[in-house]
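ok posting inputs for the magnesium ion job
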Amino acid sequence: MHSPFRMDNLMENRKILIAEDNPNNIQLLGSILRQYKPQIVVARDGRKAVKSAIDLQPDLILMDVNMPEMDGYEACRKLKEHPETQHIPVLFLSARSATDDIVAGFAAGGVDYIQKPYIEAELIARIQTHLKLLVNRNNLKELIRTKDRFFGIIAHDLKNPFLNIVGYSEYIQENLEQIEKQELLRYINSIFQSAFAQNRLLDNLLEWSAFQTGSFTFTREKLSVDEMASDIFQLYRQVALTKQIRLLNLAVEKLYIWADKNMVNTVLRNLVSNALKFTPAGHEIRLLSARTKNTIEISISDQGVGMSEELIRKIFAEDLQLTRYGTAGEKGTGLGLKLCKEFIRANQGTLRVQSAESQGTTITLVFPSDNL
Ligand SMILES: Nc1ncnc2c1ncn2[C@@H]1O[C@H](COP(=O)(O)OP(=O)(O)OP(=O)(O)O)[C@@H](O)[C@H]1O
Ligand SMILES: [Mg+2]
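and the output
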């Protein structure tokens, strides 16, 4: 690089549209840009540039001003009017250097105006700067989406169980003398179930948002699979008892993974919670572990309602928040498995779903064993 300030190369694999009619200029620009490995697309007049931009959705457009058919200003205005292209940054490249020309470029919606002949390093720096802005803007959009989903879930799903807790505890407080012991136990159990589900949802939400916003602290350590499994089963003891489901920890002893404890705990918690939720009374849930040549595998199997192929395909879809009621009417948010997948991936592992309707589900976590 010519500049003392090193910039990351954001051009690699980005699609850049060059709108230019002069073959020599295309040649020159192409040879400069190619060192940064973008995908280059060329349009030889303004009208073609607009069409290519709509069809190909480039990340950035380098736009000449004087072109046949439609000039660069007009093409830029058209792009800014079109909902599918208005977000694409347009940088003018022109020999016209009068202030009016430059201002006209910005007025047409351009983000920058570079005069020809240009200095190579400056051209590159400006392109990189606008790509950086693009990346930042996309990150911000993603954060806002996450925040909206977060608030949506809080507003929607955190509210109802609280009504249950507040309602029952108030009733008990006011009528303690008249309530029979059996009845009291039922109320307390209902409060417990609500508070437990609430607590779990809150944990998921907080971890998920921390992960999304990058404020998650991530420390990998050697973790004993069977100790973690027994902690999780202990946590769900009461829920399993109430639902009459047996939890079987069949993890082999002295088997370890190298991962972040909080994250793996969150994953196991979600998987056990799902297994409990989607299994009717009288069945069992098994946690198994195994070592293969290069991996350590942990699986959680239930004999519950299972999933259709279509459901399996959809559970990880970005914009869907799929959820259904459990066999005892338990409510969810459709956040759990997505969180699991992200957390396992962050720990270099993979998550596999095997399930058949009315037969049960097995979720397997596969971790590499060569990092231990
Ligand atoms: N063990 C399972 N058996 C049957 N279906 C399951 C099982 N685990 C997950 N599913 C299906 O996948 C969906 C998504 O699971 P996920 O854990 O992401 O959400 P949820 O359990 O509905 O809500 P949340 O975990 O956020 O409280 C569930 O609603 C359910 O339809
Ligand atoms: Mg779940």
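notes: The pocket of magnesium ion (ligand 2) is lined by residues 270, 273-274, 332, 336 (CB under 6 Å). The chain has two domains: 15-140, 144-368.
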